[in-house]
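Onboarding guide, step 5: your first structure request.
Type a short instruction followed by the sequence, for example:

Predict the 3D structure of this protein.
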Amino acid sequence: MPGVLLVEPTRLGDVRGFFSETYRRTALAEAGFDAEFVQENQSVSELIGTVRGLHFQRPPYAQDKLVRVISGRILDVAVDVRSGSPTFGKSVVAELSADNFRQLLVPAGFAHGFQTLTPGAVVLYRVTEYYRAEAEGGLLWSDPDLQIDWPIPPTRATINGRDAALPKLGAFRSPFTYEAPAKGRGFAPHGRKFE
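The system replies with structure tokens like these:
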């Protein structure tokens, strides 16, 4: 299974601004990920400190996600929720912004969420499976057992009731099973923060 990837598209600039290929399937395939995206989603979060997540879709509707920010900044998080994984419950954290132009590829088997660091943050993400309400699942974003260093603490964050009621890691029964990656393929070390 391909791992979490930090993607940094090249920008070609001139007097008009810049041009960039924000998605190229062959480039991701060379990095170990080769799947078709079938849906693109957009969220707008008006307030600093807004949290969306930590979400996933259960198999057989599990989604890989390619996340990017087109306005503002977020702290993006992927938590390994694959039963039997040596990094179960650990996270990969990256700041994504319109300025740094980075994207995070979050594979199926990881819960995904983010916290906004600017007002009016606009996030786009492509997914490899269509949205299905009956397959929704997630983890409580503020669970101390996840050891995520959120920049804006839970007491000052904005979150909806559904996400606030998600289970903690200790009460979570994963629908995902870990499969060791093929030789030479892996994922970013857990807990690594991409600056």
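Each response can be followed by summary notes, for example: DSSP finds two helices and 15 strands in the chain.
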